[in-house]
Amino acid sequence: MERRRRPSKRRLAVLLAGAAVPALLVAGCSSGSGGSSGSDSDADGGKDGSASAAPSATTTPPLAPARFTTLPSPCSTVTKDTVTKLVPKAKHSGGTATDTADTGGSRSGCSWTGNGTDGFQYRWLSVSLERYDSSAALGAADLQAHQRFTDAVSAAEKTAGTTATGVTGVGDEARSISGWTIVSKVKSQNDSVVVRTGNVVVLVEYDGAGLEGKKNPSAKTVDGDAQQAAKDVVAAIAAANA
């Protein structure tokens, strides 16, 4: 997907518990000073009491396991019906896997391109997936994915001339960024949908342009189609981990 503290309550509680230990020690010593005949035993009792009252060491709770442990085959994440609708007469209907995939199964992608049934309606669809695992060094998987989602949306929204809107009903959080670009004197209507579902971040990019003076698809159409592809990908992720 390249393409595109103040002290916590727990820390305060530990500090307060630690601060209480000297007070307990003082109290133990005071109770042992009542008489000379029992000073040794009283002192020992004070020490035992203070030791038992000291706060026990706390352990960090285990991180929540990642919701999704695997990614689906990227070129199977968008249904055939959706591909046919979004990229009619695609050069490779089965999609072309991107070279961003890794052997660890944490990153993958696929794209489709074509010029439509009449040869004058350019379409390009791309999906990218990134999966995160919980780790002591980096934190919970969902939180890592949320940060990546936030960074991806922020980067997309900085592109001049784009409009960002929230998307409901797709994953745990989603945002759509619409805009257009001119490449080789051809104006292209573009849309990016960024989605987080559990510990996986999905980026769907969809571009459409009319060639040789043909009419471009509307921003609404491109956005709706991109969102449909995003829904397909989210469903594929869930199915792969069922």
Automatic annotation (TrEMBL):
Residues 28-75, 90-112 are annotated as: Disordered. Residues 1-27 form the signal peptide. Residues 49-72, 94-105 have a biased composition (Low complexity). The keyword Cytoplasm does not apply. It comes from the Bacteria. Keywords: Signal. This is DUF3558 domain-containing protein. The lineage of its organism: Bacteria, Bacillati, Actinomycetota, Actinomycetes, Kitasatosporales.
